[in-house]
Amino acid sequence: MLEVQSITFPEGMTLQCGEKIAPLDIAYQTYGELSPTRDNAIVICHAFTGDQYVASPHPVTGKPGWWSRMVGPGLPIDTDRFFVICANVLGGCMGTTGPTTVRAGTERPWGKDFPPITMHDIVAAQVKLVDHFGIDRLFAVIGGSMGGMQTLTWATDYPDRVFAAMPIATSPFQSAQNIAFNEVSRQAIYGDPDWHGGDYQAHGVIPARGLAVARMVGHITYLSEEALTRKFGREIRPGTMPAPHDPLAALPFGGMFQVESYLRYQGSNFTRRFDAHSYLSISRAMDFFDLGSEHGGSLSEAFRGVKTRFCVVSFSSDWLFPTSRSRTLVRAITQAGGHVSFVEIDSDRGHDAFLLEEPDFDRTVRGFLNGMARQAGLAEGDHHHAL
């Protein structure tokens, strides 16, 4: 049975918007052991629709952890050597305080009244958890996609507390195109007849169709054209017929394309484990992320005086967070006099490549962490792996 790890901070926290959330619950998972000197901790920040089950079976879906191929004994993020912490983000729906949490003093969940949050709020909540463990400085913070936004926020908001940082398949700001995709997803949720003006919980329903469409839109952006073509092409799923009310149903041809079936499956599964208000809340936090605008329009100023050692990673076919965004980030860190290395992984699997089997990426993660561990003077783990 998977141990549910959670902590409550009765004092809560004040958000950037000025509202206070109290108490504050943070659900998390840990892997490995914290060293006596507390110098081997790595925070892994999950992506938009991820959660804390980075290397543990998911309690709802039963699927392996979303990065179980990366985190564990002898793996690139070696839990024989490092103490790994992954928390469900603020605003999430897997145990950390969010829209599904019952609001103090009421018997109802926060729902549509959950206050707006930012990436700074999300990281500030994680800082409270790290403080709970008595960790003054993290060995590393690592995250892909929205997790990369959190990683950059950690390094710039708490520069003395992060020795090394690995922002993966991410950007120092949310692009107009990505905001546009997120808005289409939000409108799909708003347009669901079970939305009820955001009060769906009071009606005992969820806007499942809208949430499924939102997931489908998102999933398309996570893949590349090459990956979709290789995986599905134009194949028709055997034995399928058009859906009822499908305008093509009366035509002599029909059937469901494999890619349609795949997207519907992804959308349907998603509604089992994710909340619509969490989707809205977190997507808005991503959209408002822009490190440069917070520093007088100068991205390099965000990294002025930051001593954290960065390894920025992008993937060649990622059009959601393209390599050009990573290069912009690397230039800004360099202009600020920071320490940064940059790797573009050649892959045709799109944005999701950081979650998939990519040997060059595995070697990059292992190599960076081992190199940083030597610089930090960390003792070798039980397993030593050649780079």
From TrEMBL:
Identify the residues that bind substrate.
R215, D352
Catalytic reaction(s) noted: L-homoserine + acetyl-CoA = O-acetyl-L-homoserine + CoA
Recorded hits in InterPro entries, A to Z, give: AB_hydrolase_1, AB_hydrolase_fold, HAT_MetX-like
Signal peptide segment: none
Keywords (alphabetical) are: Acyltransferase, Amino-acid biosynthesis, Cytoplasm, Methionine biosynthesis, Transferase
Q: Which SUPFAM superfamilies match?
A: alpha/beta-Hydrolases (SSF53474)
The EC code for this enzyme is 2.3.1.31
Q: What class of enzyme is it?
A: transferase
**UniProt cross-references to HAMAP family, sorted A to Z:** MetX_acyltransf
Similarity annotation: Belongs to the AB hydrolase superfamily. MetX family.
Q: What does this protein do?
A: Transfers an acetyl group from acetyl-CoA to L-homoserine, forming acetyl-L-homoserine.
Record-given protein name: Homoserine O-acetyltransferase
User: What species is this protein from?
Assistant: Parasaccharibacter apium
Q: Which gene encodes it?
A: metXA
